Amino acid sequence: MSAMTTDADRLARLRMDARYHRERRDLYRAKMHSPRATSPERMRELERSCEQAAERLRSAEAQVTTTPSDKRHKGVP
């Protein structure tokens, strides 16, 4: 049961992290359409951070979905 809680907590943190990076990217993208100074480099950095956070989340979700079947084969309920 503690492994499930740990996985759930980890996924929740990764979801929040992915959302945070997505929102920062979106806010900066909106800022680029305003008269404020923006940087293409900063936009690329935010896009890269967003993609990396999304990939970490996808990887963790894939790992969690494969873990329960592995435990069943080893005799763990």
Description:
With 77 residues, this protein is mainly α. It has one domain (2-73). The protein has helices spanning 2-31, 40-73. Helix 1 (2-31) packs antiparallel against helix 2 (40-73). Helix content is 83%, strand content 0%. It is built from two helices and no strands.
Write out key terms for the chains shown:
mainly alpha, 83% helix
Report the average pLDDT across residues.
87
Shape: elongated
Work out the count of structural domains. 1
- Share of helix, binned: over 70%
User: What percentage of amino acids are in beta strands?
Assistant: under 5%
* CA(first)-CA(last) distance: 10 Å
Largest sheet: none
Q: Specify the number of helices.
A: 2
Poorly predicted parts: none
Task: Summarize the helix and strand pattern as letters.
Answer: HH
Structural classification: mainly alpha
Concise summary:
This protein has 77 residues and is mainly alpha-helical. Helices cover 83% and strands 0% of the residues. The protein is built from two helices and no strands.
Which helices and strands, and how do they pair?
Layout: H1 2-31, H2 40-73
